[in-house]
Amino acid sequence: MAVTRLARTTPRRKSLPLRADNTAAVGMVTLVGAGPGDAELLTIKALRAIESADIILFDRLVSEDIRALFPKGTPAFYVGKAKDNHSIAQADLNDLLVAKASEGLHVVRLKGGDSFVFGRGGEEMLALKKAGVRVVVIPGITAGATCYAGIPLTHRGISQGCTFVTAQGETELNIDWQALVRCDHTLVFYMGLSRASMIENKLLQAGMSANMPVALIENGCCKQQRVIKGSLKELAELVVAEKVQSPALIVVGKVVELANDLQWFAEAAAPLAGQSDLTKMSA
Ligand code: SAH
What we know:
Helix content is 26%, strand content 19%. By secondary structure, it is α/β, with parallel strands linked by helices.
C-alpha cells in the first residue's frame, strides 16, 4: 500500500465529551499494541479504542487484516518506519501526536506487538506527557510470545527465564554477551536479521555452545509463519540459505528443541487462524 499522505484538515471529533463546564473537550492519545499480526490476537480493549478513535496513526507492522477493522470514515495514516526508510521522523511524529490531541481529538497510535517492547512507546509517551497531553496505553501481544512457533519461552528444568534483546543500535557497546550466555536464559533477538552473523559470533566468543538450538521465526503468528530451526554455528548461514525476510525473530536456547513436539500451528491451526498477511504491509 502506498504511504498515505497526512491529512491537513482536521477530522470531525466524534468521541470525546465536552468538559463539565461545557468548554471544549480535551484530546488524548491512546497508545495501542496491535499484537503480532493475526487480527484475532487484538485485545477487545484495543478494538474498542480503534472504534472510538477520531484519527489513527499506524505503523508498518500493523497487518492488513487489522487495518480492515478501522471504521470507514476514520482518517488513518501510515507513519511507520522500515529500516533506513522512515516515513516521518520520530520528533515530527511526536509533534504530530501532540498537535492532533491538542485539537481535542482522540488519537489512536497503533503499533505492532506491544508499544513498550522495542516500540518507542515510552519515547512518544514522554513527549506527550511533557506537552501535557493525556495518554493511556493498551498492551499488545509482543512478537516474542512464541506460542505459534511451539516454543515455550520458559520450561521447568530447561530454561528459567527469557531475555528480549534488540540487535539494533549500539549493541556491541551495550550488550554484555557473557552475561547473556551465563544466565542461560532463552534469548529472543528482535530486529536481528541483518546482524545474525554478529549475534552468532558474539555468543560463540562468549562461550555459548556451537550446538545451542536456534530458531528463526518469520511472520510469526500469521498464516505464512515460517519457523526454521538449526544450531548457533549455522545461524547466519540459515538466514541466507532460507532467504529469511523481515519481520523475523531469532530465538536462541534449549527450549527451541521442544518445538519438535509442541509445534501445532502449521498443521492444525493455519486454516482456522492467523489469516493476517504481513507481506501486504503498508511499506
Ligand atoms: N513492538 C513490537 C516490536 C517492534 S520491533 C513487538 O512488541 O513485537 C520490530 C521487530 O519485531 C522486527 O524486526 C521483528 O524482529 C519483530 N517482529 C515484529 N512482528 C513480528 C512477527 N509477526 N514475526 C516475527 N518477528 C516480528
